[in-house]
Write the C-alpha cells for this entry.
Amino acid sequence: MDTTQLLKGVLDAAVLAVVSHEDGYGYDVVRRLRSAGLDNVGDASVYGTLRRLYTAGSLSTYVVASDGGPNRKYYSITSQGHHALAEQRITWAAFTQSLSALLNNAASQDAAGAPPSGAVSNGAALGNTALGNAALGDGTPHGAQRLDEYADPVPQPPASTIPAASEAARHSLTGADHDA
C-alpha cells in the first residue's frame, strides 16, 4: 500500500505529536518523524505543515543561535495546538476502530469464503461503528434507513482498546460528550 496519501491526511497530527514531546527545528522534526517509522515523509511537506500550523496558532516559534551555522527556528506547541492534538487523537481512535472493524470483517469473510461478486454480506460495514453512526448524525436523513438495521453487526474491539487519554481529553477539553 502506498502510504503517501495516508500520510498527507495525518501529517498535522504527527507533527503536533512530535513537537508536543519536545520543541524542534524543521529538520529535527523531519528526523524524528522518520525515526518513528514515517520513512516516506518529505522535507517540504513537513516544512509546509510547520508553517501552516504556526499560522493557525497551533505552534509558536523562537530562534536559537547555532554554533555551526545559521540560527535555527524552533517550534513549540501552544495551548491551541494541544487542544487540536487532543481532538485529532479522538478522531484518529474512532477512525482506526472503524477501519479495523471493516478490515477484520473482510478478513473473516475471506477466510470463510468470499461472498459472490456483487453480494453484500454485511451492509453495515461502517454503519455500526462510531464513525459510521456519526456520519448519520443524530437522526437519519429523510427517507434513509440506518445500515445497522439490516445487517449483522460488525465486531467491535473492546472499549479498553481506545486510549484512555482520548476519553479523558474529550471530557476535559469539551466538558461534554459528543460523537467521534
Remarks:
- The radius of gyration is 20 Å.
